[in-house]
Amino acid sequence: MKLLFPIALLLAAPALAAPKAEEPPPPRMSTLVVFGDDPCPRSSDEEIIVCARQPESERYRIPKALRKKPKADEVTQSWVERTRTFDMVSKQGLPNSCSPNGTNGQTGCMRQFLEAARAEREAMKRGE
């Protein structure tokens, strides 16, 4: 086994030592947006410049991708619901929260049970 390692190293040495022909780096590419009659800069050997022309009226406008307003369907939760969620999350561990966290979390469990029972009774009365 000791003999195989130096032989394998000698066989692999020419492949490791052979210098590779270095290719020149590819030219850099820049994309610019020009407005109205503004000239597009010239390309050079090291850099390729691609210009997109927009009308002069678009020069100081917000880009089209950022202009659209969210539709009412995209807004899934109102601010009132969001604040209720934040209140519920931050209330854990406080008195009347029915949470295992904190010293007063257990006091709200009976209240929640009674409110659920009351809502169930009212739903049964409406259903009858």
Can you offer a commentary on this structure?
The protein has 128 residues and is α+β, with helices and mostly antiparallel strands. Among the domains are: 38 residues, no CATH class; 34 residues. 39% of the residues lie in helices and 12% in strands. The chain contains four helices and two strands, in the order αββααα. Strands 1-2 form a two-stranded parallel sheet. The longest helix is centred in the last third of the chain and has 20 residues. The chain is elongated. Keywords: Signal.
Sheet of most strands: 2 strands, parallel
Please give the number of β-strands.
Answer: 2
Strand residue percentage = 5-15%
Terminal Cα separation, in Å? 90 Å
- Give the overall pLDDT as a whole number: 77
Query: How much helical structure, as a percent, in the residues?
Result: 25-40%
- Oligomer classification: single chain
Globular, elongated, flat, extended or rod-shaped: what is the shape? elongated
Structural class given helices, strands, pairing? Answer: alpha+beta
Tell me the number of helical segments per DSSP (H or I, 4 or more residues long).
4
**Low-pLDDT regions:** none
